[in-house]
Write a structure and sequence with these properties.
687 residues, Endonuclease, Chain A
């Protein structure tokens, strides 16, 4: 008898998919055709990503496991399975990571760049190191005795520590134990030593401190010093990840064992650390059974490799690509008028973000502008965006800023900027309770009534605009601008019954509208019309969207996806999924733009905006996706997607297996690198 149950469609768990994504970054660090110092940077990005993953995602899974509510048993077992699989992948990837570190270090030597340890220094270098310590480091280090503290709860997990074993006799019969925080933020992680015979020498700050331990503990008569690095990662616990359904969130918050906010959940330590010293470290970290203890190498916190000194070797970096100031957005004419004449578009970092800054600066002083409203999610350190808004407020414009205080790991910076804006007379709205404001929109109100809107796929952030690929539409299209204004009304009056005519807005109707668009492709395919879906996005994990894409593929709709990060689709499991092709691109810029193309029976519909296809974006955040009407801009967005799908140098196959195989070129097929091709095109078009 056949089962009446519907066959379950394959779904790759988000956290496993993330591990596969981060491995693509590690993979880039192994490639000899990538400039050497960029390989170091990829190692730093991999390490930094992993730290954040443990702080947030592993923390969430651990809280599920700890939940004491019996009705959550299914979720608990699932979380345990995910944690076991992540543990296996992490152990495998750590070996690859350490091998890559060794290889890159060896390759640096071939370029006469040497990273030396405390055991390698010459007497002349030791003299330099001790003088450097006295002038630049002394006073920034205060060792703490393990015997003097109950735990490491108050220590910062952004930093790296040395656990120190000290003895006053050569037999080390009686040893004392301390730890110290490396002052990386003040001194940097890499100290440049004097060059010698054309060779450049650097040393980890860790080893500089090891060389200077007699100075650190000066006057205490120790004769034996040993120092071993360790680092730990806390449960970020700023929020339980809202990809979990509401009922599960409540169970966790009510049923979880009493666990102090921010407890360590992962520790990495030098494998050479003596057992007595390791016991001291682990005891003060109070780890639970499901927490992760990793035996590793001599150096940790490799995120600092993102800031490795270039040693005056620009040839070991990517060739510089200067952002292009588009001709149509340059010159003395008013940018506001140009936008009112026709839609305008920039694609950072290929195009200069200064065009958007200039729009704000002009709006700040233009007497025809009555108001400016914008959403800010992450802010640059010296934000020109905020300075322009403050200037506008001082010029009497009515300025409203929606700032998201829960932008993960940027909370403190956002609070500081909020105070400055309030002091300048800006109306600051601190998000919406229960909904993160993740949309990237600006509304400029004109006395003439011909208002303007800017809708972006990424944050209004000068720093991000140098390394993240994002698209921005600047428009005076009446319906779009009116809808953008309605989004701000919705933010100020959340959950009010506001309908949007053109924009797709979450959590209102965005998900339903996307499903309708996919259903339309299925219907068109069945009646013989042109049917395809082409999408560039960061993440796809929403189960309803995943199942709908499977349904479309089974109906014969051609689906081509560029997915940078998490992807829950598995394309290797059923023949019906041969219609789904998924590519992940890792290159010099972080792929961040979201572009959606639907064949629509031959009359393409193209959208762009801030939302990924994840439950948090579709159900728990205020996101904005805009249709694009201008034919030239539609063509530009289509080119971005199609170039990505053609990329046979940086593109990997994303199939749910985690192998990250590179795309195989057909016989005679020329090399094609999408980011390089786009920049070359933009240069030609701007002549």
């Amino acid at each position: 008898m056949k089962s009446s149950r519907k066959k379950e469609k394959p779904y790759l768990e988000r956290d496993i998919s993330w591990m596969y994504f981060n491995r693509r970054i590690l993979q880039e660090a192994t490639r000899t055709n990538v400039p050497l110092l960029e390989r170091l940077a990829f190692l730093g990005i991999y390490s930094n990503n992993l730290d954040e993953f443990f702080r947030v995602r592993i923390a969430t899974q651990n809280r599920i496991v700890e939940c004491t509510d019996r009705s959550a048993n299914t979720e608990k077992e699932k979380a345990k399975r995910i944690l076991r699989q992540i543990g296996k992948l992490n152990a495998k990837y750590i070996k690859d990571y350490e091998a890559t570190i060794d290889q890159v270090t060896s390759d640096l030597k071939k370029e006469n760049i040497y990273i030396i340890s405390d055991s390698d220094v010459t007497p002349e270098q030791m003299e330099f190191i001790r003088n450097y310590y006295k002038k630049n480091i002394n006073g920034f280090i205060t060792p703490i005795w393990f015997s003097a503290i109950k735990s490491l709860d108050n220590e910062n997990d952004e930093n790296i520590y040395l656990a120190v074993k000290l003895s006053k006799d050569s037999e080390r019969v009686q040893s004392e134990y301390a730890f110290l925080e490396l002052p990386v933020n003040l001194c940097g992680r890499f100290i440049r030593l004097p060059d010698n015979n054309g060779k450049k020498y650097l040393m980890y700050l860790d080893d500089v401190i090891r060389c200077c331990l007699p100075l650190v503990f000066e006057g205490l008569e120790y004769i034996q010093y040993e120092a071993y690095a360790f680092k730990f990662t806390r449960d970020a616990e700023m929020e339980i990840d809202n990809d979990l359904r509401a009922g599960m969130l409540q169970k966790i918050s009510k049923g979880v064992k009493s666990r102090k906010n921010g407890e360590p959940l992962r520790v990495i330590y030098d494998s050479n650390m003596p057992k007595d010293l390791l016991r001291k470290v682990l005891k003060k970290l109070h780890l639970d059974a499901q927490d992760t203890v990793i035996e590793s190498g001599r150096y940790h916190n490799h995120k600092d490799l993102m800031r490795f000194p270039d040693c005056s070797r620009k040839d070991l970096r990517y060739p510089e690509w200067t952002p292009i100031l588009r001709k149509e957005l340059d010159g003395p004419e008013s940018l506001l008028k140009k936008i009112q004449e026709k839609d305008r578009f920039i694609h950072v970092p290929y195009h200069s973000f200064d065009s958007y800054i200039r729009v704000l600066q002009e709006a700040a002083v233009n007497k025809q502008v009555s108001s400016i409203k914008t959403t800010l999610y992450r802010l640059a350190k010296d934000s020109k965006v905020v300075k322009s808004l403050i200037g506008a407020a001082r010029n009497g414009k009515k300025v409203t800023v929606v700032i998201e205080l829960l932008a993960r790991f940027d909370e403190a910076s956002n609070i500081t900027w909020s105070k400055r804006m309030q002091e300048a007379g800006i109306k600051v709205i601190f998000g919406v309770e229960g909904l993160k404001v993740h949309s990237k929109i600006t509304h400029i109100g004109m006395k003439s009534g011909k208002n303007i809107a800017c809708i972006s796929t990424g944050n209004f952030h000068e720093g991000n605009a140098k390394t993240y690929t994002d698209c921005m539409l600047m428009t005076a299209h009446m319906k779009l601008v009116k809808d953008v204004e309605q989004v701000f009304n919705f933010i100020e009056r959340p959950y009010s019954p506001i309908r949007f005519k053109d924009l797709l807005v979450s959590p209102n109707e965005m998900k339903n509208k996307f499903i309708t668009l996919i259903n339309n492709e299925i219907k068109n395919k069945k009646v013989g019309k042109t049917a395809y879906i082409k999408i560039k996005i960061n993440h796809i994990t929403d189960p309803d969207i995943v199942n709908k894409l499977y349904e479309a593929a089974s109906a014969g709709v051609t689906i081509e996806l560029l997915v940078r990060g998490n992807c829950s689709l598995m394309t290797d499991t059923e023949s019906a999924h041969n219609n789904i092709r998924i590519i992940g691109i890792i290159d010099r810029y972080l792929e961040h733009s979201r572009i959606f193309i639907f064949a629509n029976g031959g009359d393409e519909k193209i959208f762009m905006g801030s939302a990924d296809w994840m439950p948090r974006n579709l159900d728990n955040r205020i996101e904005v996706i805009t249709p694009v009407y201008d034919p030239a801009i539609k063509g530009e967005l289509k080119r971005i997607v199609e170039y990505g799908l053609r990329d046979n140098l940086q593109g990997r196959i994303v199939d749910g297996l985690g192998e990250n195989r590179f795309i195989e070129k057909a016989d005679g097929e020329a090399d094609f690198r999408s980011q390089e091709a786009l920049y070359a095109d933009y240069l030609k078009e701007n002549i």
